[in-house]
Amino acid sequence: MAATNAAYDDIAEQYKDSKKMDFREFVEHHTLHQVLAKTHPDLGPALPQPWLPIKEPAILDLACGEGIYSRAMKRVGAREVLGVDISREMVALAEKAEAAEPLGCQFVVGDASKLDLGVEHEGRYDIVLAMWLLNYAENSEQLEGMVASAFKCLKPGGRLIGINDWPGNPLESYQLYQPYGFVKVAGDAPRQPASTFEWRITLPDQVHRPTPYTLNPKPRALSPQLLALSPKPQALNPEP
Question: What per-residue confidence (pLDDT) applies to 226?
Fold first, then answer.
């Protein structure tokens, strides 16, 4: 995961700016809201911002970046939020935002595939967020390590919630996202588990390429406890 660290250190400010793009707000933010809503569907219709399925939860935000979702969760009632990211520059941006507008979030540098926050964090969190985390696993060991890190920190009955690129997305669709400010570029064809691809995001005055994502490899045999965390995959077919 060292390449991920270096890549985001180099483009931290640009990547932060990409969070303001329309597809982030109207697809990514909305999707997170809907996933959170499904954890407690009797609370009513969708609200204009993310809301939490339980009262005043403790939240661990893995791959927190500049802290956009860590801070969003604190604004809507999280009791405690800890953000973790492998990039020192992304964590520095998160700490800068917290210093400018203190909400009570904390941020640390760490590798989610082999996370060691100390025994005081084991079984501590009601929710672990993993927004664009699992796609960085370069092999099955790293993928299992990410899930194991989340499992170790969750309370019994806690939830792992995240967003990830759909590995089954056909190659011919990779260029169709250009009107929304990005395209995907395949590194290998035909694609195999752990094949790489790039997101090329176009900001108003520049283009930057986040570090290559990987098609999630199939994890090796997991313990029953870890398997219990694995959601059934669902293919989303947006209307044209």
Answer: 45
What would the pLDDT profile of 138-152 be if each residue is shown by its tens digit? 888 999 999 999 999
| Residue 130 within a domain | yes
Neighbouring CB atoms inside 10 A of 8's CB total: 23
CA-to-CA distance for 198 and 211, rounded, in angstroms? Answer: 7
Q: Which domain holds residue 136?
A: 2-166
The CATH number linked to 160 is 3.40.50.150
The answer as to whether 31 is a domain residue is yes
Q: What is the pLDDT of residues 9-59, one digit of tens each?
A: 777 877 788 787 777 877 888 888 777 766 544 433 444 445 566 778 999
Per the structure, the count of domains in the chain is: 1
For residue 226, is it within any domain?
no
211 inside domain:
no
Give the rounded distance of the alpha carbon of 47 from its chain centre: 21
